[in-house]
Structures are given as C-alpha cells and as structure tokens.
Amino acid sequence: MAFELPDLPYAFDALEPSIDAQTMELHHDKHHATYVSNLNKALEGHADLLAMPIEELLKNIDKVPDGSKQAVINNGGGHANHSLFWKLMKPEGGGEPVGELKTAIEKEFGSFNDFKTKFSEKAMTIFGSGWAFLIQKPDGSLQLKRHSFQNSPLMDGNTPILALDVWEHAYYLKYQNRRAEYVENWWNVINWKTAEENFKK
Ligand code: MN3
pTM score > 0.70 for this model? Predict the structure, then answer.
C-alpha cells in the first residue's frame, strides 16, 4: 500500500486565465507528487499507517512515531491539502456558494460579500507559505483560519470546507509578487458544489 497522486479533474489549462497551465502542471506533477513520494518514504515499514485514508492519518497524527511525525505533518498535510484544492476548483467556476453551505455562510458572516472580503483578508495576511481555510468545527460552526506551511485543519479535529494555497509556487509564474490579484481571480474558479459536499449538515 502506498499513497498515490490523484489525477487533476481537468486539463492543466482549464483554469486559464485565473491560473495558468504551466503553474498547474508544475504544482500538480512536481509539488504535489513530491509530497506524496515523501509521505510514502516517511512511512516506509508502517503498513498500517500507509493503509489509512490520508484524512484519517492526519486526524490520528498521534499514532505516527515521533521520528516520522513532522514529515507526515508536512507531506501528508501537503497531500491532503492539494487533493482538496484541485477538487475545489473547476473551469467556469465561481459565483456564489450553493445549498446549505450558502445558508451557513450567510448566517456566520452576514453575507457572501462579507465572507469573501474576510476570507481574502486571511489569505493576504499569511506571512510566508501557508493556506487560508474555511473550516467547520466539530460543533458544526464555520470559521476562517490561517495555517502555516502544510498544517492541515484535520489535525485540529476541524473539517476543511474551502482551501486556498498561498505558497508562492501556487501563483508566482503568472502573478509574481501580486498575491492580491491571484486571490481575487481565484474566486472565479471555485467549485462551490465541492465545498458544499465538504460541509457536514
Ligand atoms: Mn501548493
């Protein structure tokens, strides 16, 4: 058993012009692939851990031996975060949240526009490499979070609903230092159906 790189659910150029094809190809085929390969290396000889779904492994990070734990946090987190990220985007995405997630966002943040502003602020105020998340807490409520590096919300017992990669590798080829422009254009490719499916009713 070993963890595997999932296929992208669309072509590399499918998210143009918001995210360029070369960035998508490097991001998926090189960056994400490396997290998967390093995760498998870190867990060599631990067949039980290699057989767990990545989400379960991160929820049970305390079961990972100390010598491998940080490598699993980094690379297992990277694998889970990116697997989610690809599915949270689609060509001709964007628009507004759907279903019960829409209702929950409006209840928590007032309106979709207020939510969008606050989420973008989170993404803009991550210092260095990290992710902006909308998470659902065990009590069912929604919250915005900044996570450094590849630290997964699953390790805190939270469920990631929406995730935005703000590592420079996610946008530098097209946007260079202009993270705000990347964040703004990302709203045009969100797959709200996936976000709604992540949300536990
Ligand atoms: Mn990335």
Answer: yes
